[in-house]
Amino acid sequence: MQTALAQDLHTKQDVKPIWDGVLNVLREEISDVSFLTWFKPIEPVSLSADTLTLSVTSGVHKNMIMTKYYSLIESTLTGATGKNYQIEVISVEDDAPVAEQSVPATIGKVFNPKYTFENFVVGNNNSLAHAAGVAVSENIGSLYNPLFLYGGSGLGKTHLLHAVANNAQNLNPDLKIMYVTTEKFTNDYVNSILSQKNNKKSIQDFHDKYRNVDLFLVDDVQFVGGKDGFQEEFFHTFNAIYENGGQIVLTSDRLPAEIPKLEERLRTRFNMGLLADVQPPDFEMRIAILRNKIQNEYLTVDDEILVYVAENIRSNVRDLEGAVKRMLAYASIRRTNRITQELAEQALKDIMTVTKKKLTTASIIDEVEKYYSLPKGSLVSQRRPKSVSYPRQVAMYLCREVADMKLPDIGRDFGGRNHTTVMHAVNKISEDMKTQADVEKDVAELTENVTKN
Ligand code: ADP
Ligand code: MG
């Protein structure tokens, strides 16, 4: 274990300069956009006697490399090293929690190095889960045991689970860590029972494998209910690890109390430590996540477009990530790295889930008056103090930019004002949004309020 790890570190150090050399040559051969899109994000993993292993974050990316760039990489590498290598590309999606597939349970290698605390964006919706994750990774078995992370799909539970593993492993390379999905654990168990006829030791092997770990991470325990034999076995595994001072971290899409057909003794165990939730991201968090994902992709995106995406994709982080990937793919097809509004709309038209509510001047005026705590009717009155005129301009802006109404119609509904007044208001707010964060925030929140169902 120790030597394997040392060796692993060794190859990592070796592959980096070689890969950098390859990149330097490739950069001259292909367009900037292709380079930034397809090559810059590649993570070199290792270089063995005959294989260069590269890692990418999506299946799309892997396909591009394998189909379009394989021979270019191969020949450049041969040029740089004087030797022939095969290129192997692994995609994080291949074995990833993202695709909700089971991951082979081999101690020490199964968790995904891409999912770390460093690249996990923390906000109100997940700060407890994040803090608890960091805490247990630094204090194995002694703080919250088990740590039970729960929340809807695509909100970062699996990411956190791997981050706990990565951090714990960095702090203590000798730690025995097991990451497993409920499904994988069940299959392993069933297989060991089946093969016991031929091999008396198989169930013992199963116990040795699962009960001697320091950090046991189980993804998606909501699936335990009703699985024959599983709950019994899992209960004993849990107890063995717990009694040895090991740390257990579980994820689930719901609370223990809500998992159907969960045996009482397991429910009690799950509730014994800390329950920490992850909630859907609010507007600010969605913006923060988009910024974070985009910053890794070498794209130029204006703030208005981030707002547009954050307003339209509200479900979860996975979908926000999907949106960034789509924009990236469109940008690369068009050989640009600048995302315009038009490009974003094209890229996202199939995944936008919102059904546009029919907006009226009355409903917008109503929301804006509520937002600024103004008496009803203030915005359509002829009064012009700043306390009223700024909200009025914001309301006009929303009518124009969000509800797409005509300038004269807006003027008419705001107490019979001229369309040039409306135009002036729209321009003013657009300008102010660029320079004043509070204006941008007001508009973003109001847009959310007026469009939500
Ligand atoms: P879950 O297991 O809750 O269904 P995942 O952990 O698989 O969700 O997250 C889905 C995707 O969203 C992953 O690619 C993950 O990296 C990303 N993600 C989720 N939450 C965050 C976050 N707070 N910061 C950065 N990326 C996140
Ligand atoms: Mg998951």
Description:
- Helix 3 (59-81) links the parallel strand 2 and strand 3.
- The strands form three sheets. A five-stranded parallel beta sheet has the order 5-6-7-4-8, with helices on both faces.
- It starts with a helix and ends with a helix.
- With 453 residues, it is of the alpha/beta class.
- The chain has helices spanning 2-29, 32-39, 59-81, 127-138, 157-171, 182-194, 202-211, 230-243, 264-270, 283-295, 303-312, 317-333, 341-348, 361-371, 386-402, 407-413, 419-435, 437-451; strands at residues 43-47, 51-56, 86-91, 147-151, 177-181, 215-219, 247-252, 274-278, 300-301, 338-339.
- Magnesium ion (MG) is lined by residues 97, 157-158, 219.
- Adenosine-5'-diphosphate is lined by residues 97-98, 115, 120-121, 126, 153-159, 289, 317-318, 321.
